[in-house]
Design brief:
- By secondary structure, the chain is mostly helical.
- Helix content is 48%, strand content 6%.
- The chain binds carboxymethyl coenzyme *A (CMC).
- The site of carboxymethyl coenzyme *A (CMC) has 20 residues, from loops.
């Protein structure tokens, strides 16, 4: 570890005289961390932490979350300030490099990203192999992973220059592939990227333009998309980021690692929640049905969750949800949508839930996904693309975390242990002799 211990904890096993002193490390912010690496050697025991809720799996300088206070910092900068004053490409630079760029550095960085926005023409052929009704996240898992097949001369993860280029390629090409997945589902021609447009505007252009007529990207929509990308860019050691790190810890190439991250993001407990929120609101249908829906959520046997609510780390509020709710009102206002029944329904659902003891006692508040789907819907983006947009935004976070891991001298293959509760050792019995 790069931190020096500033204390220790003594672990002892009851009823024995075995004990050991373990170092305690302090980060810049956040709770102290007990370094248990010598625990097995000293005492012969493991720790048990399903879901890793109490386990720091790495040191990181990228993102900090204080779940009790509702704080999210990218490289020390509060998300509220970045959402208000920065933009996605600058946030990409910040996450990747640790500092905000000078004007010249930003110009170079933008050039680096735009230089890589096109994909190899052969990639078009991949799409013919997918059904038109394939979920775009299925297409993303396949095509992003397949990028490795196009850059096999540049997959040496130990070469900093090859790592740098892979990072640019991923940040630049993931929106192109996402837009292709969408166009394919519609049966429309693929739209090539336009490097004169900003990142978010170019993404919207590739999603919405058709060759038959000119398409002007709405600045209101581009700004809203940019804000959504900023809010989703990184989030510490969440499930998909940990998946990227775990895959990367084996030495796997970055394209394969990011494809693994996309797969993990797809689940409804993670990035798939934005899609699930809209589905849920559609099923509730009307405010009068909220109480019976809430009753179902509270019934443990129903397996129904209030999607867009709750978070492993945020136990107060998710700061991204606050910004997202504000953005939702702004976007609907700027688009002249004065009556959006889904927004009214979501707000009423939130109002009822945050006053209900079930949610209050469990510290369940709206998360980033509760309002993002409503904005995306208002922007004309279909529900099946919501999680894809999350993946576009999170690619920079995954790449930054992957790069940080590879550059960490203490990095080793990720390999958790277990409590084995299966059968003890027994001898094989031939089939004819089994009772
Ligand atoms: N609706 C109803 N009950 C819930 C919910 C919910 N959305 N979330 C948690 N609970 C209950 C849970 O059943 C448990 O109750 P009990 O103590 O009686 O057993 C208690 O709250 C603690 O929950 P948990 O399952 O231990 O919490 P977790 O940290 O393991 O799960 C979560 C976090 C985000 C997976 C979960 O809250 C959830 O499934 N939420 C809905 C899906 C969602 O919105 N996901 C997006 C997360 S934010 C964006 C992202 O990171 O991708």
């Amino acid at each position: 570890m790069t931190t020096t211990p500033n204390g220790s904890v003594t672990f002892s096993i009851d009823g024995t005289n075995r004990s050991t002193k373990l170092p305690v490390h302090k980060g810049t912010l956040g709770p102290d961390v007990v370094d248990i690496r010598k625990l097995y050697a000293d005492l012969g025991v493991f720790t048990f932490d399903p879901g890793y809720g109490e386990t720091a799996s790495c040191e990181s300088t990228i993102t900090y979350i204080d779940g009790d206070e509702g704080v999210l910092l990218y490289r020390g900068y509060p998300i509220e300030q970045l959402a208000e004053h920065s933009d996605f490409i600058e946030v990409c630079y910040l996450l990747m490099n640790g500092e905000l760029p000078s004007a010249a550095q930003l110009k170079d960085f933008k050039k680096g990203v735009t230089y890589h926005t096109m994909v190899h023409e052969q990639i078009r052929r991949f799409f013919d192999g997918f059904r038109r009704d394939a979920h775009p996240m299925a297409v993303m898992c396949g095509v992003v992973g397949a990028l490795a097949a196009f850059y096999h001369d540049n997959l040496d993860i130990n070469d900093p220059e090859q790592r740098r280029i892979a990072a640019f390629r991923l940040i630049a090409k993931v929106p192109t592939i996402a837009a292709m997945a969408y166009k394919y589902s519609l049966g429309q021609p693929f739209v090539y990227p336009r490097n004169d447009l900003d990142y978010a505007a170019n993404f919207l252009y590739m999603l919405n333009a058709v060759p038959a007529e000119p398409y002007q990207v709405s600045p209101v929509l581009a700004k809203a998309m940019d804000r959504i990308l900023v809010l989703h860019a990184d989030h510490e050691q969440n499930a998909s980021t940990s998946t990227v790190r775990l895959a990367g810890s084996t030495g796997a190439n970055p394209f394969a690692c990011i494809a693994a991250g996309i797969a993990a993001l797809w689940g409804p407990a993670h990035g798939g929640a934005n899609e699930a929120v809209l589905k849920m609101l559609g099923e509730i249908g009307h405010a009068k049905n909220i109480p019976s829906f809430i009753e179902k959520v509270k019934d443990k046997n129903s397996n129904v969750k209030l999607m867009g609510f709750g978070h492993r780390v945020y136990k107060n509020f998710d700061p991204r949800a606050k910004i997202m709710q504000k953005t939702c009102h702004e976007v609907l206002g700027e688009l002249g949508i004065t009556d959006e029944p889904l927004l009214d329904l979501a707000m009423e659902l939130e109002r009822i839930a945050i006053h209900d003891d079930y949610f209050v006692s469990r510290k369940l508040y709206p998360n980033v996904d509760f309002y993002s789907g409503i904005i995306l819907k208002a922007m004309g983006i279909p529900t099946s693309m919501f999680t894809v947009i999350f993946a576009v935004a999170r690619t920079v976070g995954w790449v930054s975390q992957w790069k940080e891991m590879i550059e960490d001298p203490s990095q080793r293959i990720g390999r958790p242990r277990q409590i084995y509760t299966g059968a003890p050792r027994r001898d094989y019995v031939p089939a004819a002799q089994r009772g």
